[in-house]
Structures are given as C-alpha cells and as structure tokens.
Amino acid sequence: MTWVLTPAMRRLRAEVDAIAPQRDRSSDGSIGDQAHASGASGHNPDETGRAEYTDSDRVNEVRAIDLDGDLRTPGLTMEDIVQQLVRRCRTGAERRLAYIIYRRRIWGDGAGWREQPYYGANPHDQHAHVSGRPAGDEDTSSYHLAELAQGKEDDMFDEKALAKLNALYALAFSGGPSCGAEVDPGNNDRGKSNSIVNKLDALLETASHPPVAVQVDAAQVAAALAANTGFLAAVAQAVNDDQSRRLAQ
C-alpha cells in the first residue's frame, strides 16, 4: 500500500524551503527506516506501520518529518524555526503539531509545550523532528515562518544599510543639502546636552567602525528611511527617551 506524507507536513517543509532555499537536506526525512518500524513513530505509515496516531480514513499517512539543521542562510537557524513553532503552539495559534524534538530537547502538547530534556537514543542534533496530529492532516494554512525570515532581514545591517544610516545622520545633524546651517551635534538650542544626537552617535559607533561615508541628496535619504523600519524605530525610541528626560527635569 503506497504511503503519503500529510499535506500539513508537506506545507511545513515547503515553508522551510522557501525561507532557506540553499539549506542542506541530507538529514531530511519522512517515512521511517527499519529502526523506526520496530516501534511506534510518526515516521511510520498509519495503515501499514506502527504509527503514533491513527484516523478513520484508509489513507496510508506519515505524520512526521525531519528537517536538516543546517539552513545555510545567514542570520537564520533551525533553533529560530523550532522556537517560532513552539511559541505559536504554546499560545494556541498553531494546533496541528503534537511535538518537536531538537538537540536533546522535546516540546509537546502533553506538557503545555514546555521545554523538557529528551533522552532518546538519537539526540536529534543534526535535524529537527516534527510530528503532527491526525486532526490537522489536511490543514495547509501558513506556519508563519516567512514572518520569522522577515524579522531577521529587518535586524541585519549591511553596507547599504550603514550608508543610509550615515546619510540620515549627515542630513539631520551636519547641515547636508537643503538642511540649512550646520548644528552643533553636542548641544541643542538651549545649550543642554542633546541626548538624541548622542544616541545616534552611539548607534553609528555600534553599527560601523568606522562609519561608512556617503554623500546623498534629500530624496535618496527619504527613500532610505522608507526601506529601513528598524532604524526608524531606533530613532523614535531615542526621541521618546529624550522627551522623558526633559519632562523629568
């Protein structure tokens, strides 16, 4: 009898492939080998093998997949993916999964998705194991892994991002094109310490050693700001902190 991987597990694997297209797949797996066949496992088909869970249909379904831990994607790890899935399972946003095993740890619905040590013979240090429940077999809705990838992209500073950041700094505090007279970056118009400028200086120092020097016009900076929401959030926080300091004086 031919076996099939459930649509829910196929969707999960496809989402991992989408955010890490160059990932290693040598430790990927679905249907189990002879070692799995000797005991109950999500890798065993539910009609012809010793499956963990069964249902009333006559489809020979496999409900578990292994995902190789080497994503070969800068800034993204299998740990990130595992924790994203666990968070959603813990809050009830994700209900298709039964448990996840990775690096001698296990999370499952039976323990409220709390992290627990895993003592099985296979430490799962080369891949993550994900098992599903029958009720979610046909559910192909998103696992929201693309959001995880987007978050990583927003956090990354590359040379282009550094150049945009420095362009904003130059225009705002060094009298760039159409900005009027140069201002003293250490003081505001009342002669008090300008903490906003100081925090921008600190942000620049953290991001680049030395900062990337660029010259751009105001239109370029406007486009740069629209594409860098992470930096805008940092500036907004600096402004809020500065206002709080002034109110406290």
Morphology: elongated
Question: From N to C, what is the helix and strand string?
Answer: EHHEEHEEEEHHHHH
| Termini Cα gap | 77 Å
Number of domains: 2
Structural class: alpha+beta
Strand content: 5-15%
| Order of strands across the main sheet | 3-7-4-5-6
**Mean of residue pLDDT values:** 78
How would a textbook summarize the main sheet? 5 strands, antiparallel
**Residue share in helices?**
25-40%
Radius of gyration: 26 Å
Q: Which descriptors apply to this entry?
A:
2 domains, alpha+beta, 7 strands, 5-stranded antiparallel sheet, elongated, 249 residues
Verbal overview:
With about 250 residues, the protein is α+β, with helices and mostly antiparallel strands. It folds into 2 domains: about 5-150, no CATH class; about 155-249, no CATH class. About 40% of the residues lie in helices and about 10% in strands. The strands form 2 sheets. Strands 3-7-4-5-6 form a 5-stranded antiparallel sheet, with helices on one face. A two-stranded parallel sheet has the order 1-2. It is elongated. The chain starts with a strand and ends with a helix.
Fold blueprint:
Layout (H helix, E strand, L loop, with lengths): L3 E2 L1 H13 L14 H4 L23 E2 L1 E5 L9 H14 L5 E6 L2 E4 L7 E2 L9 E6 L12 H11 L3 H15 L21 H13 L10 H9 L2 H20 L1
